[in-house]
Amino acid sequence: MQAEKLPYPAKQSDMRQQPDTDLAGYRAAGKLQGKVALITGADSGIGRAVAIAYAMEGADVAVLYNHNTSDAEETKRQVEKQGQRCLLLQLDVREREQCRQAVRRTLAELGGLNVLVNNAAYQMSQEKFEDITEEQIRRTFDTNILGYIWMAQAAIPHLQKGDCIINTGSIVGESGIPILVDYSASKAAIHAFTKSLALYLGEKGIRVNCVVPGPVWTPNIPATMPASEIKNFGHEVALKRPGQPEELAPAYVLLASQDGSFMTGSLVHVTGGRL
């Protein structure tokens, strides 16, 4: 892996070892034909791969991102390459009104909303727990759990039976990791949020699930992890390597499509054998 550090927020285009997000070997089957998806944090990494997979399956996609316009524009190019519409939304999920704005613009410009993917995330490693600042803790929770809640609250009034919400959790929300204590706690909150919201929305026929990634090579890794961790990143799992974003995308397709019609409240682990 690329052992050099990159500044936060890192651009996917600046990474020496690029994540695989183009799904070159993916075979689509029209599973999301006519659907509209809103994906947060879709400028790069897992979010970009999901946006491309959804477009390949026939969905129009709204891409919500915060910082990296050039990365977001590449996601848009890849979505449109599949013949689908792509709406770029430079907004901040930490702000409740901006989450409402994202939903309003998606409805107005893409004509509906069927799938909400809460994927935006913030992490910053700290060797000493005592050194985590209040600012970092608030940013982590504001992005990783409050942002998911704000987006869900904005989207739910517009979702119908058969529509869904998909959250991105993390294996560290179950196993923990010493250098990401606040991040791990926020991801555990996402898992509980998923299960509770699934119970709340079940009678309406709206499904809520969570993809639980293991170590995945994204721009967040060289931007937020110590160089010593980057070099051997992902080699603790059974497959002895980190995952690529495109290897996560099929799980999001499953959960958004009719194939996952009896799945709700599920934590779908895609971890390479990290237990």
Automatic annotation (TrEMBL):
Gene source species: Hymenobacter sedentarius
Signal peptide: none
SUPFAM superfamilies hit by this protein: NAD(P)-binding Rossmann-fold domains
Protein name, per record: Short-chain dehydrogenase
Pfam families: adh_short_C2
PROSITE patterns attached to this UniProt entry: ADH_SHORT
GO molecular function terms listed in the Swiss-Prot or TrEMBL record: oxidoreductase activity, acting on CH-OH group of donors
Keyword list, A-Z: Oxidoreductase
Coiled coil spans: none
Similarity comment: family membership: Belongs to the short-chain dehydrogenases/reductases (SDR) family.
InterPro entries: NAD(P)-bd_dom_sf, Sc_DH/Rdtase_CS, SDR_fam
The keyword Cell inner membrane belongs to this UniProt entry's keyword annotation: no
PANTHER family per UniProt: NADPH-DEPENDENT ALDEHYDE REDUCTASE 1, CHLOROPLASTIC, NADPH-DEPENDENT ALDEHYDE REDUCTASE-LIKE PROTEIN, CHLOROPLASTIC-RELATED
Region ranges (Disordered): 1-20
